[in-house]
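Running log. JK asked me to keep both predictions on one page so they can be read side by side. First protein, sequence followed by its tokens:
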Amino acid sequence: MDVGIDVGIDLGTSATKIYTPERGIVLNEPSVVAVDRDTDEILALGTDAYNMLGRTSSRIAAVYPLRDGVISNYRLTEAMLNTFVRIVCGNKMFMPRVVVCVPIGISEVERRAVVDALRASGARKVCLIEEALAAALGAELDVAQPYGHMVCDIGGGTTDIGVTTLNGLAVSDSIKVAGNSFDAAIVKYVRQAHNLLIGPRMAESIKKEIGCVAPRDNMLTGIVKGRDATTGMPRQVEVTSDELMEAMEEPGIYICRAVQDVLERTPPELVGDLYERGMVLTGGGALLYGMDKLISKKTRLRVLISHDPQLCVVLGTGQAIGFIDAETNVEQATSPLDIYSY
């Protein structure tokens, strides 16, 4: 009998990543779907659809079927997962167990939507793990011990913060301020300061090139291209890293406040551990220049950027597979992990 393939999935607002115990990370694709508006036919997924963003005709829409870490368009999410799973599993469409991450604090309806979409893709058993706990596992923190570790995962749609201990989260929070918020802040700033309309892809590109939330040693400059808001004609302007730091100040402060809030709610016994060990930063937002410095300045915590921060969550979902007994499909009593089985 074909036992299928176990998988761990980071179903992110911006990107979907899939891990298998045998092969490691086997898929890393943008969470984008291109649809024909007239026929509702799906035309492209992943990278192919991402390359259409901002470049489609009026008949075609390239969209993200997840918003703020949860499913906003069930049909498109199911189709996207079906395709990605087929790429990974080939003819072995049956998956006995799937561990997938979800933002902290989402509703039961939102959880069930994820479970149903995965079952439609061939999963027999679905386990949900909160993103902060998955990030901690992927960052190789020893979450099983009775002392605290703190992790802040800055994804595309949400920032998830948690204090781990004894294989669970003692305190946690999730805010809808993350990588996409920095892109939106740049779009807004360029419109106001330069009267130039740019898209999210241009904003993301310049953010990665010269963006920062703490002062750089040397100011950098870059070119943004868009459409003049007055004349409608193509135009480009030069922007500086100092300008982008000003533009992205607000979402950066929101994230710092969320970290401070989690610290204030952390039991005293664990707070000492955090100030001794520091906090680990994961997710794509960890790569934004100065994010570690900004959080450290606001919280007085030592902040460390994990190795391969963008991959920590999917690696954590893969590790979580090992905590589920293969025969009984229940969590092992000897190594309980705070996950939710469906």
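And the second, directly underneath as requested:
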Amino acid sequence: MAQSGKQSAKRSKPSYFMAILGVTLVLFIVGILGWVVLNSRKLEQVLRESATMNVFINQTTGDNDKDSLLAFVQTHPSVKSYRYIDKEEAKKEWLGQGNEDFNEFIDNMVLPRSVDVNFKSEFADSMHMSSFQNELQQFGFVTEVKFPREVVAKFNLLGKVSLALAILAIVLLALTVILIDNTIRLAMFSNRFLIKTMQMVGATRWFIARPLNLRALINGAISALIAIAAIVIIVFSMENWVPELRALRDTQTLIMLCLIILLIGISITLVSTHRSIIKYLKMKLDDLY
């Protein structure tokens, strides 16, 4: 009987490897999708906050009027940042755009003073920006207010894409729980005679479950750590390949994603293993065949 137990333990080793491999692949897919969802939301936020409203003011506007406008912009709850551009700054931007340095022409022509306004992501939509535009036009010295309406209108599409990805991630997470549970149950199937044999010789439920639960915890951690390492490699490789992605990196969020993957890997593996142990302990010997 002891020899039979040893043989069952030996047969269980390959199943552990396949269980680790299966759980790793599932966690890797979930992690990559999670990273895509987080990046899509971050991308939407960056794009919304980069949409600039240009506020042009009359050249004869006095400092008091200008300061009142800047104070209004600064204290408005929807504004993330702003920048006042005087004539000298406008001249630098003119030259910075690749225009030729016609010094005398530039000095003589009237370059408009302006204020560039960027909004918080939750306010960077057509409705809020149009409302803010109307408020600015109440200042008599404001000659023109404009912002990229067509671009801002498309931000809503990004929001819908992010929502669709988030729903997909939730569905995939539910499937992950089912897939990992089935993978662990298949791995435990090869241990059913070992579990029953230990019960028949008088071992307590806790004594039987402890080493298998410990193995499940270790296997879950190994699977999660391998998946996390693969995800981190993919993320940094993508950032090296597409440098613009570095602007979207949120280290704290990435660490949180990795911790969630680790928690999922350990908890589901442990719970599924323990359920299988209890199941086989309650079954009759003849039902194991």
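Observation for JK regarding the second prediction: The first helix runs from residue 2 to 50.
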